[in-house]
Amino acid sequence: TFANIRLVNKFLAKPGPRTIHLPSDTEMDVYDAAMRYKSEGHQAVILAGKEYGSGSSRDWAAKGPWILGVKAVIAESYERIHRSNLVGMGILPLQYQAGQN
Predict the structure, then answer these.
(1) DSSP 66
(2) 75, β-bridge pairs
(3) pTM of the entire predicted model
(4) Using one digit for the tens of pLDDT, what is the confidence trace for 48-74?
(5) Residue 42 predicted with pLDDT over 90
(6) Among 21, 27, 30, 55, which has the highest number of CB atoms less than 10 A from its own CB?
(7) Is the CB of residue 71 less than 8 Å from the CB of residue 92?
(8) What are the strands, taking DSSP E only, across 1-98?
(9) pLDDT given for residue 40 in this prediction
(10) Are strands 44-47 and 70-75 parallel, antiparallel or unpaired?
(11) How far apart are CA 64 and CA 2, in angstroms?
(12) What is the 8-class DSSP label of residue 14?
């Protein structure tokens, strides 16, 4: 989950499965950041673009974020069935208002 080398995190200068841990401001792998947040007792939220969940194995597209401790996803839009898969895993799928991202 989130291991695709083409993953784009707009908080970072180059593509890849990396993110910034806050508040330490440390760059690290998405998995490592998720585990760190979990160990610190923080819940995770994903900020996503268009068609979140597309191109993924439908099963793992929702299971992976659940394993990482994600509680909600805020996206511009979702792949056709992905929203209901997230709900099935207990993850709240939210959508930006029209014209916002």
Answers:
(1) H
(2) 95
(3) 0.86
(4) 988 888 876 766 788 989 999 999 999
(5) yes
(6) 30
(7) yes
(8) 18-21, 26-29, 44-47, 70-75, 92-95
(9) 95
(10) parallel
(11) 8
(12) S
